[in-house]
Specification:
Elements: H1 6-19, H2 29-35, H3 38-45, H4 83-94
Helix pairs in contact: 1-3, 1-4, 3-4
């Protein structure tokens, strides 16, 4: 399926490095992330010129999967939008980091 394509898998792993931190990076984290439809997030923002977001914010020290469970505050992602929307934001932001696209063209609102 398209969701299993190598480009999607690569993006999924890169986003996971930024979002699934510390104690949350368990052997089943990919299953938990799948439950919030994170892979489709890449496809939603892959060629977007801008991304406008309405979502919930993660409180510092809460898990990034549900925003309800306590975790070390250092495990809250820097881009602190929760759920699948947060994964879409991270996919979009990652396009402009690490020598990718021009950061001046990142329009995340």
């Amino acid at each position: 399926s398209l969701l299993e394509h190598s480009a999607v898998a690569k993006a999924f792993d890169k986003v996971g490095e930024s979002r699934v931190l510390g104690s949350q990076r368990t052997s089943d984290f990919r299953t938990k992330v799948g439950e919030i439809l994170a892979r489709r997030s890449f496809l939603q923002v892959r060629f977007a010129d801008a991304v406008y977001v309405v979502g919930w914010r993660l409180d510092k020290g809460k898990d990034q999967f549900t925003g309800r469970n306590d975790v070390d505050p250092r495990e809250t992602p820097v881009l602190d939008v929760g759920g699948g929307t947060g994964w879409a934001c991270q996919c979009y932001a990652d396009r402009f980091s690490g020598g990718g696209e021009d950061p001046a063209q990142c329009n995340l609102f």
